[in-house]
Design brief:
Elements (H helix, E strand, L loop, with lengths): L2 E7 L8 E7 L8 H14 L22 E2 L2 E2 L21 E5 L8 E3 L2 E2 L2 H8 L22 H11 L6 H5 L6 H12 L8 H14 L10 H5 L7 H16 L1
Parallel strand pairs: 1-5
Antiparallel strand pairs: 1-2, 3-4, 3-5, 6-7
Helix pairs in contact: 2-6, 3-5, 5-6, 5-8, 6-8
Length: 248
């Protein structure tokens, strides 16, 4: 396939960015999107042009680093996949593909397609933990009875990889889906009950301080989430937050 790539180039957060156009030829439909970007970067280096900076690590849909906004969609046109799992067969010969970074006030651009998502780390640090009894009377987690439905819901919430697609696709740049997944992961399990009230209050407070927007229930976050995190988690977090607020 022969493609035209329109890529956002920006030296740093303070610099003014712009779209640059790059033609690329002989792209295999079996390539992943990141492999195609690797080929483009090799081409740019050969031409003496600074390669395009983008995040990647595992390239297996696990780490959540490969965050690109492709043709107006977080992670591109496919569903339930990350950018590294997106294959070029989703595009046609002659297509023009626009590639941008995830855009949000809380995700400042580091360079080109790479953004700083450490705001997510700070939200988790604000309350994403459970108490561990180290007194010598520890109880094995597998010996604690847990309702199968609750365990399944907790596992589904824990599937969130923190990629930020929910923020990037939300018109308000809301992080509610991400935060609610982290809250739900603990709220559904007995090990998470000890800090439950403090956790949800602290995580929501930190989310607001980071500059994320409010949720208006559009649902775009769930559609674009590569792990299919459900909006039910937002409802659960709202219940947890209301209970914590009333409990004081």
């Amino acid at each position: 396939m022969n493609l035209t790539l329109k890529v956002w180039r920006q030296a740093n957060a303070e610099a003014k960015g712009k779209i640059e156009t790059y033609p690329i030829a002989d792209v295999s439909p079996d390539m992943s999107f990141l492999e195609m970007m690797d080929v483009l970067n090799e081409q740019l280096i050969g031409q003496g042009i600074d390669p395009i900076a983008f995040d990647h690590d595992c390239r297996e849909g696990i780490c959540g680093m490969c965050s690109m906004f492709i043709n107006g969609e977080a992670h591109g046109p496919d569903r339930l996949v990350t950018t590294c799992q997106l294959h070029m067969r989703k595009f046609k010969d002659g297509d023009t593909i626009t590639i941008e970074p995830f855009r949000a006030q809380a995700f400042p651009v580091i360079k080109d397609l790479t953004v700083d998502r450490s705001a997510f780390d700070r939200v988790q640090q604000a309350g994403g933990f459970v108490s561990v009894n180290t007194s010598g009377n520890t109880q094995d987690a597998n010996s604690i009875p847990i309702d199968k439905h609750d365990a399944d819901k907790a596992f589904d919430a824990a599937a969130c990889i923190g990629c930020g697609a929910c923020v990037a696709t939300c018109k308000n740049a809301s992080a509610m889906l991400f935060v609610s997944a982290k809250v739900s992961q603990y709220a559904l399990l007995p090990q998470g009950k000890v800090e439950a009230t403090d956790r949800v209050m602290n995580m929501v407070k930190q989310m607001d301080e980071e500059g994320f927007g409010n949720c208006t229930n559009t649902g775009a976050c769930e559609v674009e989430c590569p792990k299919g995190i459900s909006l039910e988690n937002i409802a659960r977090m709202n219940r947890e937050y209301l209970y914590a607020s009333l409990k004081g």
